[in-house]
């Protein structure tokens, strides 16, 4: 802001910002006190709806550098040349808590990454976990209702959480992950990020590949135990947000090594797992991760509301050379985010400085609506036109996917080794004895709060199916706590 007198929103100088105007000394306040009315009215409108999930978060700008030639798999311009750099914006978040909730809680962390590319913004909206709780978007609102506040008590309820998870065996893998050591990262810097879904890459020759993204923290994985997290949450609810900002302020820029797993499209139909099932990983022995780049965060936002609260990310924002897969969760998300943004930030949300393309220009015929800034001036707002307006390219961003069969409420196709427990069991068996103990304790502490035996028993049953020892230990631990 420049120097000069305090003004009203219309720019008129303010004479007194301490005393509102009254009819005489001690008399009632006058409506002609424009400054008072303006201040109170603006204050009343300072909040916009918080995100329905991932409300609590922090973000920073950064740079993505490509370190490997990936042109045989994708024609994405920002991935075209080794050494090429692209500006990014990364928002981290927790999922279930409200805007003012504590950072150090057991919850997945959001990993919403915007690449400002020369072909427009590419958003990769993932988590710090490679898998998710459910595999069809139609289940997402029900799932989130069980994580959020109960309509009667106004609090998160163990009954709701475990009722849903127990009745949704596909959640067993992600729940095992969440209650393990990585369920409470020590900071946003000390955790990995994942694209989670399978996406499509396609090259200049028109060949398509299925791809999964991994961002491996160069700071090393660091976590909090449940006891440590309780303390940190109480002492410093903003712990992760503060850690991120301060590390960037002191020039200690956090970095991640970027890897991809690539599956030729011809492998997908016969792969041992459904490669589009978000509750499963692709084991590294099947598709080894390939290092392709480095992500560094190096600039804090100047204004949290403008750049973090109003930032928007959509899994539907692709660029040429990258596209969706048939993952039923991803397909639902292609709708959900744009819709959320129009409600939460408004129809011109994509024009805000943090959201608009930085290395390209948005040339659309969409106009007007609340807070339209008139950037198109007098340009024609229809297409085709004879006035040199923007024209279509005739080249889709991604390759088409063959489909067969009749419409219907189908489950995704089943593959030879698909079941809801195999990867959860593998994860458990990979853990050290200490990790297993903490996992069982964390789960038991929460399941013990469930009020109904049948709900608790069904939830335990899923872990028993993942691994007999896991189930046995969990059952004993819950029994001990319930007395
Ligand atoms: C079909 C399932 C899902 C639906 C319908 C859904 C919907 C939403 C909505 C409505 C928001 C708030 C957006 C906003 O107001 O700006 C959101 C935020 C978010 N979701 Fe999802 N979500 C789903 C699954 C997932 C999955 C599987 C992941 C990760 C793998 C994920 C990661 C995120 C992240 C990181 C954010 C925060 C974005 C930000 O920082 O602004 N979501 N989701």
UniProtKB/TrEMBL annotation:
GO cellular component, one term: cytoplasm
Family recorded in the similarity comment: Belongs to the catalase family.
Active-site residue numbers: 54, 127
Gene name for this UniProt entry: katA
Enzyme class: oxidoreductase
Cofactor(s) recorded in Swiss-Prot or TrEMBL: heme
Residues bound to heme: 337
Enzyme Commission number: 1.11.1.6
GO molecular function, one term: catalase activity
Positions of the Catalase core domain: 7-391
Protein's name in the database: Catalase
Xref: SMART domains: Catalase
One protein family per Pfam: Catalase-rel
Domain of life: Bacteria
Keywords (A to Z) from UniProt: Heme, Hydrogen peroxide, Iron, Metal-binding, Oxidoreductase, Peroxidase
């Amino acid at each position: 802001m420049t120097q000069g007198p305090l003004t009203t929103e219309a720019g008129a100088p303010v004479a007194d910002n301490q005393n509102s105007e009254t009819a005489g000394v001690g008399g009632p306040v006058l409506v002609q006190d424009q400054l008072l009315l303006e201040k109170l009215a603006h204050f009343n409108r300072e909040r916009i709806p918080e995100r329905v999930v991932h409300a609590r978060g922090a973000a920073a700008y950064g740079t993505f550098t490509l370190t490997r030639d990936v042109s045989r798999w994708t024609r994405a311009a920002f991935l075209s040349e080794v050494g090429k750099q692209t500006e990014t914006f990364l928002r981290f978040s927790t999922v279930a808590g409200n805007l003012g909730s504590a950072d150090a809680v057991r919850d997945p962390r959001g990993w919403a990454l915007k690449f400002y590319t020369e072909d427009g913004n590419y958003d990769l909206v993932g988590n710090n976990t490679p898998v998710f709780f459910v595999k069809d978007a139609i289940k997402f609102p029900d799932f989130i209702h069980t994580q959020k506040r109960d309509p009667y008590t106004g609090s998160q309820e163990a009954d709701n959480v475990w009722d849903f998870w127990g009745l949704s065996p596909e959640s067993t893998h992600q729940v095992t992950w969440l209650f393990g050591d990585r369920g409470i990262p020590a900071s946003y810097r000390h955790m990995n990020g994942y694209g989670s879904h399978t996406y499509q890459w396609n090259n200049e020759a028109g060949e398509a590949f299925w791809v999964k993204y991994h961002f491996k923290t160069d700071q090393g994985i660091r976590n909090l135990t449940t006891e440590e997290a309780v303390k940190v949450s109480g002492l410093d609810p903003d712990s992760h947000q503060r850690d991120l900002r301060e590390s960037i302020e002191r020039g200690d820029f956090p970095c991640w090594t970027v890897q991809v797993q690539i599956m030729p499209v011809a492998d997908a139909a016969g792969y041992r797992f459904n490669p589009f099932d978000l509750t499963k990983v692709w084991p590294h022995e099947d598709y080894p991760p390939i290092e392709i780049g480095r992500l560094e965060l190096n600039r804090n936002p100047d204004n949290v509301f403008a750049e973090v609260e109003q930032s928007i990310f959509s899994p539907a924002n692709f660029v040429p050379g990258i596209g969706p897969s048939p993952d039923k969760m991803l397909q639902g998300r292609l709708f959900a985010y744009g819709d959320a943004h129009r409600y939460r930030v408004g129809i011109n949300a994509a024009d805000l400085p943090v959201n608009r393309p930085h290395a390209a220009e948005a040339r659309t015929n969409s106009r007007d609506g609340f807070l339209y800034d008139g950037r198109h001036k007098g340009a024609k707002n229809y297409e085709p036109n004879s006035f040199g307006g923007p024209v279509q390219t005739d080249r889709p961003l991604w390759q088409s996917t063959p489909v067969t069969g009749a419409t219907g409420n189908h489950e995704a196709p089943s593959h030879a080794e698909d079941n809801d427990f195999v990867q959860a069991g593998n994860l458990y068996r990979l853990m050290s004895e200490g990790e297993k103990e903490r996992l069982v304790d964390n789960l038991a502490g929460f399941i013990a709060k469930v009020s109904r035996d049948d709900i608790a028993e069904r939830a335990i049953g899923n872990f028993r199916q993942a691994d007999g020892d896991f189930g046995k230990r969990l059952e004993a631990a819950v029994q001990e706590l319930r007395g």
